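yo, Tetratricopeptide repeat-containing protein is done. seq:
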Amino acid sequence: MALESNERPDRPIAKFESMLKTDDIYFFDAEDFEDIIHHYLNNGKINLAKKAIKIGLQQHPGSIELKLLDVEVLVFENHLDLAEQYLDELQLLDSSNEEIFIQRANIYSKKDNHEAAVALLNKALDLSENSFDIYSLLGMEYLFMDDFKLAKESFMRCVSFDEQDYSSLYNVIYCFEFLEDYDGAIVYLNDYLERNPYCEVAWHQLGKQYIAKNMLNEALGAFDFAIISDDTFIGAYFEKGKVLEKLGRYNEAIENYETTIKMEDPTSHAYLRIGKCHERLGNYEMAKYYYYHTVHEDPLLDKGWLAITDFYYKRNNYKKALFYVNKALNIDGENPQYWKKCATINAALQRYDQADFSYKQAVDLGNYELGTWLDWADVVFKNKDVRGALQILAQGQEFYPDNAVIKYKAAGFYLEMNDSINARISLIDALKLDIQKLPVFNEEFPQYAATDWVRNIVAKHEKSKGKTS
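structure:
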């Protein structure tokens, strides 16, 4: 027996769930079913949404809105062909329904045809009286197309419709940041704050833009206003702490990080920042205490293990540093900086084979910094593989063809091999690139720097340079 809606004064969702638990069948208005289905979709309860759609269509078989919600679920579950078939049928019944074009756009978006999706959403805009959601969808399509200018304009329209739409506000700022238009973001946020002076989200974002411009005092002021607007806004305290660190005001930074710990469960990131502040203040035992708290709170935070690594490395305790950098590598073995750090520590321990392997890993993972090539070559040279060291320098030269230091080092290595011809060529090339870097050669290879052979090459270069000038 079907019970009328007004016989059950309970809220539609509670009444619907009660119905599912019993053999009773309650009658709902089509609008009630729409509310129920939207509730489940918004909360990710797809199976309950599908049950509501099925029962809703049994009670209201002619409801286009319920059929469109059925299509929405089909699109979500990637049943795109069936969804398109239903949309074709619906369009014959109601060709001016903007939701039909929106769902077609979603299908094209799923197929990575974002240009077609944009065209359909623009058609939906022509038919819609409430275009807020459509502009949000347009913004996302433009993001997929890497058209950040149009994406920004779309999300701006969303914010103009609803200034409490913080999701769109974040997306506007994201577009500004991607376009590296920090000045534009600052102007936009200040204009927004003129109308919403107590919006902690906008103050927080404004502070981050000031940081990008290295306007640290202005950033500090923005975060203060974010905290005034909402004194429980943990993100503002944390960002304020980071700015205070950059300003060298470490004790104040610690106070802000500690506030975040008091307000919510402690986070490993807060412990890490507090540890770094104490280390800069010279409170080394306190720094160590917080670094260990960091990894205790989150053993998978590789930056915590790296902080402990650096702590011991700076104090020449290389064995402990090696132990802890390996902890970081066990968590993120694809991080080239960690492999480079591991190589540096192994080199300090004179474990040149392991250092060689670690530098190779760093380079294979994409670390092509000049220092990596130079240090790797030194390690291989100290391991008595001069040819290998020269090969590494040759690889580095491909990335830094105009770098004189590589050439000076190569000249020294060739001299170690008694290859005076290639040593002469490398030294002359280095002098041509930058004679001011000659002291690098003199310091690293003093046994050759004072020889007449080197002095003559340098003198001839200076003489020829004088003639050409």
